[in-house]
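JOB MANIFEST
job_type = single_chain_structure
chain_count = 1
residues = 317
[input]
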Amino acid sequence: MARAPGSEKRPGWHWSDYWRGGRAEVMTVEGPAGPAPLDIGDLWPGFFRELPDGARVLDLATGGGQVARIAWDTARAAGRRLEVVGVDYADLPPPGGDGPVLMGGVSLEKLPFDAASFDAATSQYGIEYAEPRAALAELARVLRPAGRALILAHHAASAITASAAAQLDAFDRTMGGGEALRRARRLFAAIQERRKPEVTQVAHAALREAVSRASARLPVAPEAEFARYMVHYLADLSQRAGAYEPGSALRRLDEVEAGNAAWRQRRRNQLTGALDARGADEFLHRAGRAGLSTVERAEAHDANGVLIGWRFLLQRA
């Protein structure tokens, strides 16, 4: 399949463009009307209301800063102030205006903060992506004694995990290893290089055949929306190849391949990071060894009663 050349070695590469695009929500679930932002309901405000005025809060794997902003807004609505810092592996857009401080390019396994420098911490679908022993040890290190951390982690049986698995399966079955993208690249390279007409004609026919095969494999399901977009994009290239400047078309194909690689990597990471009951036990055991006791462990549900993850409340000794 397509990949982002040289990008895989940079932690968070597959999230950087997502957050730079102005997204705020950390997760969406495919439904009949398309992707819908996850409804996290009142999971976070209650936690932030209990914090004293002036408390320092660290949001791990903050992404677009959704939880960090909830912390900031919850305190402000109560006439208080929280100092909120969000960190993420990915490159983040520059902060704008008043609000939380968001820092990109930060490893959860090596936080750039002094020991015992935060009163509380949060993570919404984030810390489970990290190397757990190192990340939990760092979390314990930067929390002050009796400081608490509220974590919403991926659940192996959640609607989010099921949606990610279905989307990835639909895309991989449809795109079949990226054949149609390779055919499109060969066609526009032939046009750009002014190859003989018969060479270009063969490349054009090969692209049309690859698109036809991909279209035949396309499932009729909401989870196939991204795969459907790719089929329509490639069909347009095959039908209107002469309307595109070849150099521009090739650059766009590079962008599409990099975007596909990032999209697939995000979903693979979701599936790998999702915790079943045994995985939740192991996570909390590691937290205990790092000096974080378990105050609460529960399954989290949205406002409609749909399972969306694990809720872990930890406390520094």
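[summary]
The domain at 39-158+274-316 is CATH 3.40.50.150 (Rossmann fold).
The mean pLDDT is 89.
exit_status = 0
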